Amino acid sequence: MRRRRLILAAAFALVAPAPIAGCSAPHEQRSTGAAAKPGEPDALDALLEARSREIRETAPPGFAVRAVRPFVVASDEPGEVVDRRVGAVLEPAIRWLERVYFRVEPRSAITIWLCRDADSYDRAARTLTGEAPSTPYGFYSHAHAAIVLDASTGDGTVVHELVHPFVRADFPTCPAWLDEGLGSLYERCVLEGGALRGLVNWRLGALQRAVADGVSPPIAELVRATPEAFYGEGSALNYSAARHLCLYLQERGALGELYRRLRGGAAASIDPATETEAALVDLLGEQDVAGLEAAFRKWVMGLEEI
Questions:
Q1: Three-state DSSP class for residue 75
Q2: What are phi and psi of 198, to 5 degrees?
């Protein structure tokens, strides 16, 4: 009953009156839990169906609910807008990310609360967590099995946040720099031939200024950052460095391989940071970390925001 009231409250918070505001890799076999019998839904499908039904039963008329495995999208945007986001953004992004990176799906039905504007987003976040959102764009809460987004900030916000529950399920010990680097890489992206490609975005300026001033986070420091250090003081610069390191890897065709290599070796890893450095040097064809650092900084300084 408590869970039902929470979903009902969140749904009404989302639809409170407010103005409507008008993104080639090897395939890996994914794990989705216990296999279903032929013709029967598996456990995740059943959870998604139940969550969708629960939201529809408690939400006001006209509230859009769409199941997009492994998520349920719930939105106060017009239905045709939600359908566009699902068909043109969410579905192709999810399937491509699964092909390139993720073998394991989230085991729970995660709701994407797609809020039409900043006011709707603030109300939904406060209703769900009891607190104001810490970012104006969106966030993923594992504790609440939810992604909450301000859809008016753009489709890239959706792609950024859906990366995180996949990483948590597929690579639980993924370092913060790679988790956030991947997510933020796709906060500005394009779909080209069915593939996602991250583009330079607004985070570039801060990193270029830091490189010019000699205060950008060294790669050796970035890959050793604990979550507390990564998300602490200087987090904005850490995000920018992580994003552009992932962009650098993407442009050299090495990002998917790095993710798979680090995930594959995680269980037996004694010194993950040193092994990450070795993988970066190897995949990017450098002699050592110093050479990698110099090449990366030179590349960063040559970028221009599109």
A1: strand
A2: -70, 145
With a cut of 80, say whether residue 39 has pLDDT above it: no
258's CB contacts (< 8 A; 6+ apart) are 178, 249, 279, 280, 283
Q: What are phi and psi of 144, to 5 degrees?
A: -105, 5
Q: Which one has a higher pLDDT value, 194 or 54? A: 54
11: left (phi over 0), alpha (psi -120 to 50) or beta: alpha
Provide the token pair at 292.
């990698």
Q: Are 168 and 156 in contact (CB under 8 A)?
A: no
Q: Are 168 and 190 in contact (CB under 8 A)?
A: no
Strand, helix or coil for residue 282: helix
**How many other CB atoms are there within 10 angstroms of residue 131's CB atom?**
8
Amino acid identity, position 95? R
Query: Which letter does DSSP use for residue 88 in this model?
Result: I
Q: What is the pTM of this model?
A: 0.83
Place of tokens 């996949």: 166
Count of helices and strands (H, E) across the chain: 14, 7
Residues 151, 266: Cα–Cα separation, whole Å: 35
Per the listing, tokens 């039902």 go with: 4
CB 300 within 8 A of CB 211: yes
- Check if the beta carbon of residue 219 is closer than 8 Å to that of residue 181: no
Q: Which of 25, 38, 32, 34 is nearest to 69 (CA)?
A: 32
